[in-house]
Amino acid sequence: MAGIYIHIPFCKKACHYCNFHFSTQLKYIDQFTKAIIQEIEIQKNYLSAPIETLYFGGGTPSLLPMDDFHKILDKLRTVYSLNTAIEFTMEANPDDIHPNQVKAWKEAGVNRLSIGIQSFQPAALQWMNRAHTTEQAHEAIRVAQGEGIGNISIDLIYGTPHLTNDALRADLDIINQYQIQHLSCYALTVEDKTALHTMIQNKKMDPVHPEQQAAHFDIITNYTEEMGMEHYEISNFSKPGFRSKHNSNYWKGIPYLGLGPSAHSYNKNTRQWNVANNQLYFSTLEKNELPFEIEQLPLATKYNEYIMISLRCMEGFSLQYILHNFGPEFHAHTLKVTQGFLAKNWLNETSQGYTLTKSAKFFADGIASDFFWIAQ
Fold first, then answer.
1. How many angstroms separate the Cα of 329 from the Cα of each of 300, 324, 336, 372?
2. Which end of the chain is more exposed for a tag (fewer CB within 10 A), N or C?
């Protein structure tokens, strides 16, 4: 099986923290649609397996007019073999979710909504420069559920300077009250070249405090456990049976195709990524050429990625898998590092392999870096 990701590079406004590729120039949507249809044609042989998941992300995919949405879908269905039981996710902002819109998405095949709420706190939304209000966030959930969307994911951001522990618990209370099936929680990251980075540098906003983020992470993991959610990846929680198949396939190393400016693709041996520039993307595809860069993935890179992803997931990593797929040198290296983290009580041994202990999960990326194979 394989997956397809479509990057819709448009937003109404720029959130202060965002470093994803997007543009607020909505007048270029028609040009984008023509370009991505051309890219679909050029990339028709990239994947050979039937498509199991389809994911419209961004940016703000919910801004895409239905005519353009159908043009892209029609081309996808013409070119690729789509599994009849496909998981079809649409990322949407609350202010774009209305009954007729949800009906139209459902009729087109969308069966999973990922709603970018980020917070239910008015002050937090204003601080992030979000386009929606708290009332619109509530209404979006009610509309989606009322129109029969039975698989809803909500994004929250924690660790912002103004977010108190009680406010975070209040957000989680709301998630629980609505019986949301899936939750993605992301620690606020101050990325270079974002408005947030500039404002913190100029002392117009308070900096991020790692201790506060760690405390928020503990609140989230404890609360979601009480809600009966699986903490199946560091930032992702789900009711049983509602894991994101699309993202899970990324983490399992299953091939995927990324379409649109800045989108990445992976086929087990190479990774490629499209240019993060809308006009260059448009003009290159007008010449029937692909605007991308590509890298071969050496064994050490594959190993490092396996370790990093596995430690973020609840199943962890397997020494037998490493021995079979990477060889005895990598196996011996992993075993040595593993022993050190077992002594610190940062790893658990299971029937499947090794997983992070609860107290170590907040430090997953740092722990993974200690396992990385550095070429001599």
1. 11, 11, 11, 13
2. C
